[in-house]
Sequence to fold (248 residues):
Amino acid sequence: MELAGTGALVTGGASGIGRATVALLRSRGARVAVLDVRDAADPADLVLACDICEEDQVDEAVRAAHDAFGRLDLAVLNAGVGGFGGLLELGADEWDRVVGTNLRGTFLCLRAVGRVMVAGGRGGAVVAVGSISGFLADRMMAHYSVSKAGVAELVRVAARELGPFGIRVNAVAPGTTDTPMFAPTARLPGYRARVAERAALGQVGTPQGVAAAVVALAELDWVTGQVLAADGGVSLWSPIDPAESLGP
Fold:
């Protein structure tokens, strides 16, 4: 996909990975609408207030983005929330908040942009933002991990259903990334340093690094139904790696 002149939308585009994605897309010549519950801090071509948990708001915002640009070629489904808590203490309301936002919300957005792209007849690309937590077993994060595992499967099914219309659907799975969602881990002693040490590339990720992966997937015309880990190699770490016993 050539990005210059395209119409794009980014959910959760006011901060973090979404904000970095908006900036990168606009630098490539795309017109970008931000859908977020907060005001976008950086310039965008269009900013729309939208709670992705609300079906009517999602449908209206996606239509508004399409109508403003006269087309919708790319959707980056990035909006989501974090969560932390052990299974035995986790309340149903907290489970519903995280799974409802990350999985149901992504479904609502994917359905809305898919309908608009099919009606437009030009194909398109959708990139969802998942997480490596969707295929790792992180304690205290069951609801978050389940929601992101669901996003990965949603992407694969959507890729099969929408492929005949020329619509590609992929996902990027970030690891630990220096965003507002990551900030609360500062209260966990040594967490950031430990993550950086276990990443093959030796550091915590940046929003710009993940945004580059998102845009790369959008541009790859012969790739669909894939989940790309953009995590600096932190998911390569194994607790049973025998080489760890040999020292540095």
Summary: The CA atoms of residues 12 and 18 lie 6 Å apart. Helices lie at 16-27, 55-69, 92-120, 142-162, 191-198, 207-219.
